[in-house]
Each structure stands twice: as C-alpha cells, then as structure tokens.
Amino acid sequence: MKTTEIRILVYEFESIDELPVNDQKLLIEARRITSLAYAPYSGFHVGAAVQLGNGQLLTGNNQENSAYPSGLCAERVALFYANANYPDSEVESIAISAAKNGVLVNEPVKPCGSCRQALAEAEVRFGKPIRIILDGQDTIMVLDSVESLLPLSFSKDSL
Ligand code: THU
Fold it and tell me: Does a structural domain hold residue 5?
C-alpha cells in the first residue's frame, strides 16, 4: 500500500479590508446580491459574484421553489449566467456570501457538492484556476483553485 497526502492551501482574512482590492470589489457585489435572494423556505440568503477574464462582473443568488429540488444555489445561478452570456470568457474568480435573518454568517459559507462540480467544470473548460472567496463574519477564506474545494474530482478526462 502507498499513501498519498493531498494538501490544500487556505488563506484566511479577518476582514474584507485585508483582501486584495479586486477580491474586495467582488465580495461587495456578492454581499449586495445576497439580500435579493429568493429564499422563503430556508431563510438562508446566498449571493455569488463571478469575475470574468473579459472584465465582466456578474452576480446571482439562490432561487428556491415550493418543489424544493427545483431551486438552484447562488453559485450555479451566477456561474451559468456568466457562461451562458460569455461562453468564451474564462472565469477568474467567484465570491460567495450568505446571510441568515439579514445577518452575514459567522463561518465562511461553503459551496455544496453540486456547485463544486459545476465550478470544477468551469476550471477544466477554460483551463485556468478559479480563485474562490468564501465570506464570513469571523473569517474570510480564499482558495487558489477549485481543486482545493473538490480534490479527486470527476472530469471529462475520465470519459
Ligand atoms: N445554498 C446556496 O445557494 N449556496 C450554497 O453554497 C449552499 C446552499 C442555498 C440553497 C438553498 O436555497 C439554501 O441555500 C439552503 O440550503
């Protein structure tokens, strides 16, 4: 037997002011769009902002449905909107924020498995690592790549 250790790098910041200015701009947009989420069932409002290589900054938020599985997470709303409108432009970074009862969550918000898979597709599709900014009151986490969120992922290489 052989053991392989997979390490991930997580950058942690105590406040938005410590982030590089481009990350700050993206996170401000993610926070802004969080408040416009349609989340009457969970009360958990999530916002995502995507920075594209062509300079476009696009946003999305979670869209819930009375038939629960028909809803969609903020990350995929923003990512799919970006890819639908600018299919040739690489995704450079995504910032994600979330609020409960209008208050920013304490712990950095972590994308669900399906959103991680969708982000992994965008990383492979454009051949460029996506920077990920996860918002929280106590800590803001930054990751260099989707590989840090979803190691050992399924991709077109397996097909
Ligand atoms: N949600 C997101 O939009 N993104 C995440 O990263 C986690 C969960 C949404 C889905 C649902 O509308 C609500 O949050 C509660 O799960």
Answer: no
